[in-house]
Amino acid sequence: MKKKAILFGNAKFAEMNHFYLTHDSAYEVSAFTVDGAHIRYTTMLGLPVVAFEEISKAFPPKDYAMAMPLGLKRVNRTRAEKYAHAKSLGYEFVTYVNSKAIVAAGSVIGENCFLYENVIVKPFSRIGNNVMIETGSLVGHHVAVGDHCFLGPQSLLLGECTVQEYSIVGANATIREAVTVGSDCIIGVGVVVTRSTRPGSVYLAGAPELLSGTSSELSGLLEARGGA
């Protein structure tokens, strides 16, 4: 018999996570919850949408676990605040590891973590609480990921590196071996970090070059550059 869970959210991301929990976990979603001011509809996917302010009365923590796979708003602070509130109410949390993810034996994964398809966590790594790791990411050996972090799709954390709490590592970004990403950092899409960063730093990759002219007009130039 599946365990019962409440899923935070009432938008597309919540819909996606409902799919994963329904088809690829030991949990059955019984209801959705969001702050009362953000309720759009009273039902979603045939389930009730309950104000978060009332959730412990309608679905008490003794009977239901809480799943809070929120995004990265306010440098993960929104997810951290909702997680702390649900914890203060006495809820236990869902940690979801996709059946196509690979987690080495002995690696530690905290509560309210979501690891999606093709994530790889190598030996001796530690992932804190309330962490989102998107599809195809690699967490190398002896890596430490702090609480409330977000790792975007195909991000690479190479061996012995550290990502401190609240930081965001964007899609296709790479953190070099033994490098520390300080707390509250934003590492943008495609950035390669080769040195440790200060807390609160923001790194963005260069913008793509926009050429004047259409693709058909510039095909010869692209071929000369090796782009076609």
What are the main properties of this structure?
single chain; 228 residues; alpha/beta; 7-stranded parallel beta sheet; 6-stranded parallel beta sheet; 23 strands
What coarse outline follows from CA principal-axis ratios?
Answer: globular
Beta-strand proportion: 25-35%
One letter per element, helices H and strands E, the order comes to EHEEEHEHEEEEEEEEEEEEEEEEEEH
Average residue-wise pLDDT: 95
Biggest sheet features: 7 strands, parallel
**Multimer state:** single chain
Class per helix and strand makeup: alpha/beta
Report Rg.
Answer: 20 Å
What does it look like?
The structure is a single chain. This protein is of the alpha/beta class and 228 residues long. Helix content is 15%, strand content 26%. The protein is built from 4 helices and 23 strands. It has helices at 12-23, 55-58, 77-88, 219-224, and strands at residues 3-8, 27-34, 43-44, 47-51, 65-67, 96-97, 102-103, 108-109, 114-115, 120-121, 126-127, 132-133, 138-139, 144-145, 150-151, 156-157, 162-163, 168-169, 174-175, 180-181, 186-187, 192-193, 202-203. The chain has a 7-stranded parallel sheet with strand order 6-9-12-15-18-21-23, with no helix packed on it. It is globular. It starts with a strand and ends with a helix.
Blueprint (SSEs and pairs):
Blueprint: E1 3-8, H1 12-23, E2 27-34, E3 43-44, E4 47-51, H2 55-58, E5 65-67, H3 77-88, E6 96-97, E7 102-103, E8 108-109, E9 114-115, E10 120-121, E11 126-127, E12 132-133, E13 138-139, E14 144-145, E15 150-151, E16 156-157, E17 162-163, E18 168-169, E19 174-175, E20 180-181, E21 186-187, E22 192-193, E23 202-203, H4 219-224
Parallel strand pairs: 1-2, 1-5, 2-4, 6-9, 7-10, 8-11, 9-12, 10-13, 11-14, 12-15, 13-16, 14-17, 15-18, 16-19, 17-20, 18-21, 19-22, 21-23
Antiparallel strand pairs: 3-4
